[in-house]
Amino acid sequence: DLVDPEAMVVFLRRLLDSQGGKSLDDSDLLQFACRCSVEDKGFGEVMLLLGLESWTSDTSGAAGAELQLPPELELPPPPPAGLPEGAGPTMFQVEGVAVPAPSGAATLVAELPLEPRSGSVDGGTRLQWTGQGPAPLDLYLAGRPCAALRGGAFVVPLLREQEQERGSSSSAAAVDVLAVFEDSSSHWAAAFTYWAPGQLNDVSPRRGPPQGGLRVRVETTDLGAPISEVLISGEACDLKPGATSTEAFLKLPVATAEGDVAIEVRAPNGNGATANAAFTYLRPEAFGRAGHKVALSQDGQVVTRRDGVNDGVCIGAFPLRRQPAGGRYFELSVGQVGHGGQRALAMGVVALKPESAFLSGGRAMPQEAREFERAWLAGYDRGGALFLADGRESKIPTGLWRPAASVKAGTVFGVLWTDAAPGNESELVIFQDGKECVRLPAGVGSPGPDEELFAVVDLQGSARQVSLVVGAIPPADPHASLSAERLPMDSSTTFKSEA
């Protein structure tokens, strides 16, 4: 149970002198003791290695009995507790065994000249010695040797499980550093921090608009240092003050496209956490403006008719998302129904520029959605549903679809706009409860793939309340539906917008 390097030297020197052993300098004695401690040599083996063959570990006559040393070989008492840092000799843990530094007394230096001063518990972090003069011959972290490279570089060893358990309840552990030079050594207490590789625990919310600006919270495992940087889709975020080693609040950066993106969280100690597809840029699905006779919910996803027949037009707050398989799509779920006579709701898309006065509120909403220019709508009812394509009106055969007779609470309508491939024309496709009902050719002058389309609903007839279905996607393989029928454009009846 040796407690300090000077005592080790004194003990071995007295032992050699008393037994007539060969003379060794203090440095050699300490290096010898260090090796014997690491290799867990017994006292008898130590004596044999020193050439003192008359001494064995069983001189007391019984195997395993305690060795009784002469009084002159007794070790001095350990230094008293409570000494200030740097006072008295120092012992180190090398491979789990308490041994002195392989020099007289270790030098305690104020600042560790090593970068970085932290690394993964799995090892492998490359370190660079930055001190003046020669780099150390050996470098120990928590008693384990680092692999030495050229130019004063070292590789961090893995941290043993028992050392991790000593670290604390957190996933970071501060350990001692021992640097061994040719004729001296230096020791730094708790100067290197081992951290467990971080993991992203939570992102809230997980979706946000491409235009950015949303307040987002990220939570990680303990990174061992306060979060200093967060990247979403490779873009650095503005962090709010007060980030900790497990939590940060940030401002969502602007994105050029929708979709799933990666989040990368970084700490100044080199630790971090990365997760692919951890956040989704998604255009919000909500109504932006509505007529005077309808009310919008606070989130803009539910619209309810208060009274009257007209003034129930609603426009989407944002352009419709482009679906991975192509086209634009949205869904409506009917919440409340009442007596609507022969009228029915209408739904479709309208081509508007983002700066449109209809969107900004600079222009009054029309009495009916079909008054919009460049709107493609299906619904209403005049002895059958109507299709309105940029002012051109035609009837939909009642055998295919008649919303005035089929709307009830819980009915789900889907509206799909197919972007035309070269040589083809776009179509407005209506689904009801997952089944394709009718496919309507948009005709000439229809919006191109690059134009922004907004959802439009005219809440008439028996439907008193509808809500947008967030995250809806078109039913699988709509082209294979047997119930749908492609309708030719009937231009015998036309409607010219005055708006």
UniProtKB/TrEMBL annotation:
Residues 490-499 have a biased composition (Polar residues). Signal peptide: none annotated. Residues 201-281 form the IPT/TIG domain. This is Uncharacterized protein. Residues 290-469 form the NHR domain. InterPro entries: B30.2/SPRY_sf, Ig-like_fold, IPT_dom, NHR_dom. Residues 73-82 have a biased composition (Pro residues). Residues 69-89, 480-499 are annotated as: Disordered. Gene3D superfamilies: 2.60.120.920, Immunoglobulins.
